[in-house]
Amino acid sequence: MNPDARLRRALAPVDPPEGFAQRVRARVAQQSRVVQPSAGGRAVRWMALAATIAAVLAGPLAWREYEARRDALAARAQVLIALRIASRELNSAHRKVVRPIAHTSVPAGSGVSGKEGRP
Q: Are 114 and 106 in contact (CB under 8 A)?
């Protein structure tokens, strides 16, 4: 059998049985009655509402805390970089000052130990 013919036959309009519309209306009317929520359902709704309010109120506070921590970490990183630069510069200056003194010859009886004036 041709697939198109089978599809046409399967999708051909069919009249509903007698009383179908009345049965559907009766079922809809029966299921559309208002159901009163139980006390447990109300408690769950109140807890959900309380959780939502807590999240809305705590959100900005958490965001401020996050930003403060982020700023503190950025400041810490900048301080560490500044300390590294200062250390590098001090070491460079120390090398420039100490090496010339250590390499110079000191006369024997001058009282200088050759350790940059340290005892």
A: yes
CA 58 – CA 46 distance, rounded (Å)? 18
Q: Where are the alpha helices (DSSP H) in 32-106?
A: 39-103
| Per-residue pLDDT tens digits for 40-54 | 788 889 999 999 999
Helix or strand run (H / E) with residue 20: helix 20-31
Beta-carbon contacts of 112 under 8 Å, excluding residues fewer than 6 positions away, are 106
- Tokens, residue 77: 């990183």
Residues in contact with 113: Cβ distance below 8 Å, sequence separation at least 6, in sequence order: 119
pTM over 0.85: no
Cα separation, 10 vs 6, whole angstroms: 6
| Amino acid at the residue 27 | R
